[in-house]
Design brief:
The chain is an alpha/beta fold and about 350 residues long. It has a single domain, classed as Class I glutamine amidotransferase (GATase) domain (Rossmann fold). The protein contains 8 helices and 15 strands. The two termini are about 30 Å apart.
């Protein structure tokens, strides 16, 4: 990530975050899965890799701040849920460690990491102040063999947030609870949400992404927010896997946008990579945002695909601020961006 506005300077190689040439919706499953879990961007159907590489952890730790952005009002506890039922990102264990070490180093919270959706029960969630959805994909809460358990987990999550607690999500947390619906004769298939209550809470669901190495110009929509104080107000650039949402699944009338794609600065060639049939007509591609959900709070950041993005101090500070916001320790304007 560069902090040189929308210009590529000498620091480009060190600060722009590069990602694997990977896709959130590849066509085929891998034929064979390594014993220790898939490595190399993402997979579907292979066991999740649950350990980040020591080199990645060291690079991430070097970017951690020493202090919280705001002093916690009480001892906070965060549950990191890493279960991915659809596509599995190799950055999941590193993102989990980012949350854990951020809390440990700054004293902002204590962390529990789990890859098991069985942790989402009313009784267990009573011990936490926020849940962090770590690139969860597919129907990550569901038990396909037990509808009662599925219903209980879904209700527990919604009651937790609406009751006054926090939810933070990164990257593939929005690649959850949606499916492709075939179009009518001559029309392109479209994505539809399968759990509307969750789709609205997380802000939208996956439609298309720009892949590495597309350089994305970022606009800071709310430069006065404490959640964007780490970014230059004039904007910056980033390279990672950048998600977009169907036009009817995301709306500024529901969320408070923090950062978005500076679509006017994208090249015509890059814009053309998005399928014309499902392209947004408003040029509005939010990257991070917050919203109130009942009495609770939600923060979502689109990026986080590649491990290298977790080596960036501004990105980590953004995540720290977002988590402290959902914990209730940082006040921020979370009114809808469009009234």
């Amino acid at each position: 990530m560069t902090l040189k506005g929308c210009h590529v300077g000498a620091a480009l190689g060190a600060l722009i975050l590069t990602g694997h040439a990977a896709f959130a919706q590849p066509a085929a499953q891998p034929a064979n899965c390594p014993v220790d879990g898939f490595q190399g961007g993402f997979s579907k159907g292979c066991p999740q890799k649950q350990f980040a590489s020591p080199a990645d952890i060291s690079a991430m730790m070097a970017a951690l701040p020493d202090k919280p952005i705001a002093t916690p009002k009480s001892l906070r506890h965060v549950l990191v849920l890493c279960r991915a039922v659809g596509w599995v990102h190799t950055s999941i264990p590193l993102a989990a460690k980012m949350v854990e070490y951020l809390g440990d180093k700054t004293g902002a919270w204590m962390t529990t990491i789990t890859y098991d959706a069985a942790a989402i029960t009313p009784e267990n969630l009573s011990h936490y102040d926020a849940i962090f959805l770590d690139s969860t994909t597919g129907q990550f809460l569901d038990d396909p063999n037990d509808q009662a358990t599925t219903d209980m987990r879904r209700k527990a999550l919604m009651d937790f947030v609406k009751g006054g607690k926090g939810l933070a999500g990164i990257h593939a947390a929005s690649d959850s609870y949606h499916m492709s619906q075939p179009g009518t004769a001559g029309e392109t298939a479209v994505q539809v949400g399968t759990w509307p209550e969750f789709n609205e809470m997380i802000g939208g669901y996956f439609k298309f992404h720009w892949t590495y190495p597309t350089l994305i110009p970022v606009k800071v929509d709310d430069p006065k927010s404490p959640l964007t104080a780490m970014f230059p107000a004039r904007g910056f650039e980033i390279v990672d896997e950048t998600y977009t949402f169907p036009q009817d699944s995301f709306s500024r009338k529901r969320v408070h946008v923090l950062t978005s794609i500076n679509y006017k600065r994208m090249s015509a060639e890059d814009k053309a990579r998005e399928p014309a049939a499902t392209r947004r007509t408003d040029g509005d591609y939010a990257l991070s945002y917050i919203q109130r959900v009942g009495n609770g709070r939600m923060f979502y950041e689109t990026h986080g695909h590649d491990e290298k993005i977790y080596f960036s101090r501004p990105f980590i500070l953004h995540m720290l601020a977002g988590i402290q916001y959902v914990l209730g320790d940082i006040p921020a304007d979370d009114s809808p961006s469009e009234k």
